[in-house]
């Protein structure tokens, strides 16, 4: 307990609160910018079980803001969840860290949420957030939303039955091309640190049983223009006939919403998810691709990389691919079909 002594000295935690943290289980959806700050903070705080889910791999331009990664991780071609877990185990070996390299979708989200006390949003896309929202409301689990682009960030805390849910506040996700992305607006690292730090504090409050202290507003910050605002949203819970928390119509969870291709925030790239019953055999695939690849086909346990038609492909064992050099989903699907198959 010595390592947590300064945290226990804080009146809101104490020894009893620390024991609750150590007995707590959380799922962290996404381990990029927000996710690495969340994981770093909560692993150090002594949350007993931390599940980290991320679909992506580490690139050089992530190092500006994704605090758990370094140049060696980029060179080793590691998935983010794996690299984060390696580092986090060196930070705190006394807790359990589970890393999962996959795309969160309606078929797996319930499994990731059902056995934890709290879910944290470290993603950059609304599809996953609506999935988390549906699963959290259905399974009665609290979750903390966070988002950051440019110098602007937002966060809200959702306690099922007590606060409005994400769909009470934002009924539908912005249409493609209608919202800024990290690609168009960029992102400042401090924006992320502030938002993730608020989210992590909310997690500590919830896990230590201090619901009276949680944020019940939508917090909006602009670290460049020095704006710090709180939107009073608590009344929405009674005013809105929310499809999720009122009607219990879990459209995202039922797979009625959402697509299997995703344009990746901050990059000229598309992910094509193509689930296969078995794991891909990279050895066989590499042989096939040798003839078409512009340059070397490389693979390790976690991913296979090649280049074709002027695009860089990264393929994962579950059949997903990230295709760089296009933001056109149809083009990406075509390229996928052309080189990876079915
Ligand atoms: Zn709602």
Précis, in short:
Helices cover 33% and strands 20% of the residues.
Kindly describe this structure.
The chain has 342 residues and is α/β, with parallel strands linked by helices. It is built from 13 helices and 14 strands. The strands form 2 sheets. Strands 3-2-1-4-5-6-7-8 form an 8-stranded mixed β-sheet, with helices on both faces. The protein has a 6-stranded antiparallel β-sheet with strand order 9-10-14-13-12-11, with helices on one face. A hairpin with a 5-residue loop joins strand 13 and strand 14. Helix 3 crosses helix 10. The N and C termini lie far apart (54 Å). It binds zinc ion (ZN). The site of zinc ion has 7 residues, from helix 8.
Catalogue the ligands: zinc ion
In N-to-C order, the SSE pattern is: HHEHEHHEHEHEEHHHEEHEEHEEEEH
Average pLDDT, rounded to a whole number, is 90
Query: If you compute it from the alpha carbons, what radius of gyration comes out, rounded to the nearest whole angstrom?
Result: 20 Å
As a percent range, the share of strand residues is 15-25%
The secondary-structure class comes to alpha/beta
Residue runs with pLDDT of under 50 for 5 or more positions: none
Distance between the termini: 54 Å
Q: What is the tally of helical segments? A: 13
């Amino acid at each position: 307990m010595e390592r947590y002594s300064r945290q226990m000295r804080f009146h809101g935690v104490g020894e009893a609160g620390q024991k609750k943290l150590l007995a707590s289980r959380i799922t962290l959806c996404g381990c990029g910018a927000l996710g690495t700050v969340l994981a770093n903070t909560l692993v150090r705080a002594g949350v007993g079980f931390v599940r980290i889910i991320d679909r992506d791999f580490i690139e050089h331009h992530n190092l500006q803001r994704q605090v758990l990664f370094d140049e060696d991780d980029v060179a080793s071609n590691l998935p983010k969840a794996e690299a984060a877990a390696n580092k986090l185990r060196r930070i705190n070996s006394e807790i359990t860290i589970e890393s999962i390299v996959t795309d969160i979708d309606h078929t797996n989200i319930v499994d990731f949420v059902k056995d934890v006390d709290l879910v944290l949003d470290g993603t950059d896309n609304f599809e996953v957030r609506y999935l988390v929202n549906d699963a959290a409301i259905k399974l009665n689990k609290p979750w903390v939303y966070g988002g950051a682009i440019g110098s602007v960030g937002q966060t809200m805390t959702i306690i099922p039955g007590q606060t409005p849910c994400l769909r009470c506040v934002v009924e539908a996700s912005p249409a493609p091309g209608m919202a800024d992305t990290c690609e168009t607006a960029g992102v400042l690292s401090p924006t992320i640190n502030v938002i993730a730090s608020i989210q992590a504090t909310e997690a500590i409050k919830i896990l230590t049983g201090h619901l009276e202290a949680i944020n019940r507003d939508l917090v909006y910050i602009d670290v460049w223009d020095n704006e710090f605002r709180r939107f009073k949203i608590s009344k929405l819970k009674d005013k809105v006939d929310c499809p999720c928390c009122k009607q219990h119509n879990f459209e995202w969870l039922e797979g009625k919403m959402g697509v299997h291709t995703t344009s990746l925030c901050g990059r000229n790239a598309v992910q094509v998810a193509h689930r296969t019953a078995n794991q891909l055999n990279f050895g066989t695939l590499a042989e096939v691709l040798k003839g078409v690849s512009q340059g070397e086909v490389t693979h390790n346990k976690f991913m296979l990389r090649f280049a074709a038609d002027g695009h860089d492909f990264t393929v994962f064992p579950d059949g997903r691919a990230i295709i760089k050099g296009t933001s056109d989903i149809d083009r990406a699907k075509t390229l996928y079909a052309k080189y990876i198959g079915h």
